[in-house]
Design goal:
Radius of gyration: 20 Å
Number of helices: 15
Strand content: 5-15%
CATH architecture: Alpha-Beta Barrel
Low-confidence stretches: none
Oligomer: single chain
Shape: globular
Order of helices and strands: HHHEEEHEHEHEHHHHHEHEHEHEH
Largest sheet: 8 strands, parallel
Structural class: alpha/beta
Strand order of the largest sheet: 3-10-9-8-7-6-5-4
CATH class: Alpha Beta
Helix content: 40-55%
Distance between the termini: 50 Å
Length: 396
């Protein structure tokens, strides 16, 4: 069993501070930033803090359980690891380490198309099926081969991201000259000199660029060439017809990521997908969009009886998970939270973040008078402090 990183690190914020010290600036900033003014990025976390909990007392709290299922897959808590690009640049072999931590803890792991470790790398390093996240490219042959590779790796669900037809501008990446691996400029060399552990682990791996793209897509060798490739290949014509095509090609459990509007949620439910994720891409796409937790109640009310509704964006604690479940989420995903743990301490750091979230979720659920995660609803929240479908325009 993987031991924890440091018992005195007690919050995700502690992990963030440590990761910022240990991860090169361009990669830390890549993970911990949003588009344009970053207003949506900030709202994702700020809006959780406005929601208040109702404490209940003298309730028998023995035999509690936070276990659940997500698209029929057992999960130790209603949390999965979200797909994040460049995970293997937060820590060497980062996708493998995070997948192992998730497997050991008993929650799903999702591998990004834009990962450093490939589908095959993660499959070889784990013993249980994981999920794969897909972007739709103009090169449909490449997309079909990605889907086939995910099938061959025995991935148990395909997660199709719908909100990246075009790229939102993230100022920090431009200012930092983001590349993977980093170019050996004077500024980067000075920064790397202060990150000896990161450099040590990175020198010990061969996985330093995009494992699902290099060797599979023509003309892509690093993030610089990837920029030109994505400008050409990310398909702005993506439509619900493509969702149907991908569903047929995949043939397994399908999750749609990037829903913020009840009308789009209805279309997602009509598509026959197994779950949708209320998400604004971590505030990295449309700056000024509503936070995920604000959008959740209206979407859950509109389609929650027809499709599993999950959410991501802004989750930094077990209390955040509990609030999302209370507002209609059957599951949640964490991105930055696990990346902070990974940057702070590799596999042990990710495992410690999961332990933090699970412990806080369990204890907070007990304080709110509930024994099982399935019994959690809006009654655990203080009226007037949380968003409602009416506040988001109702079930139009």
């Amino acid at each position: 069993m993987t031991t924890l990183l440091d018992p005195t690190l007690t919050t995700v914020e502690d992990m963030r501070v440590l990761a910022k010290r240990r991860v090169p600036k361009m990669f830390y900033d890549y993970a911990d930033s949003g588009s344009w003014t970053e207003s949506t990025y900030r709202a994702n976390t700020d809006d959780f803090q406005k929601i208040k909990l109702r404490q209940r007392v003298a309730v028998n709290m023995e035999g509690r359980s936070i276990r659940t299922q997500m698209v029929g897959i057992d999960a130790a808590m209603p949390v999965a690891i979200a797909p994040t690009g460049l995970t293997g640049m937060q820590h060497a072999d980062g996708e493998i380490l995070a997948a192992r931590a998730a497997e050991a803890f008993g929650i799903p792991f999702t591998l990004s198309t834009m990962s450093i470790c490939s589908i095959e790398d993660v499959a070889a390093a784990t013993t249980k099926p994981f999920w794969f996240q897909l972007y739709v490219m103009r090169d449909r042959d490449y997309v079909e081969r990605l889907i086939d590779r995910a099938k061959a790796a025995n991935c148990s669900a395909l997660m199709l991201t719908l909100d990246l037809q075009i790229l939102g501008q993230r100022h920090k990446d431009i200012k930092n000259g983001l590349t993977a691996p980093p170019k050996m400029t004077v500024r980067n060399l000075i920064d790397l000199a202060t990150k000896p552990a990161w450099c040590y682990h990175m020198l010990r791996t061969q996985r330093r660029t995009f494992g699902n793209i290099v060797g599979h897509a023509k003309g892509v060798s690093d993030l610089s060439s990837l920029g030109a490739w994505t400008a050409e290949q990310f398909d702005p014509r993506l439509s619900w017809d493509d969702v149907e095509w991908i569903k047929r090609r995949w043939g397994g459990k399908l999750i749609l990521k990037g829903i913020l509007d009840a009308d789009d949620a209805r279309l997602a439910a009509q598509s026959g997908a197994d779950a949708l994720i209320v998400s604004n891409h971590g505030g990295r796409q449309l700056d000024g969009a509503v936070s995920s937790i604000q959008a959740l109640p209206a979407i859950a009310e509109a389609v929650g009886s027809r499709i599993e509704v999950w959410m991501d964006g802004g989750i930094r604690s077990g209390q955040d998970v509990l609030k999302a479940v209370a507002l209609g989420a059957r599951g949640t995903l964490i991105g930055r939270s696990f990346l902070y743990g990974l940057g702070a301490g590799g596999e042990r750091g990710v495992r410690q973040v999961l332990e933090m979230i699970a412990k806080e979720l369990d204890i907070t659920m007990a304080f709110c008078g509930r024994k099982t995660i399935e019994s959690v609803d809006r009654d655990i929240l203080l009226p007037g402090t949380y968003p409602t479908p009416a506040s988001m325009g109702g079930n139009r």
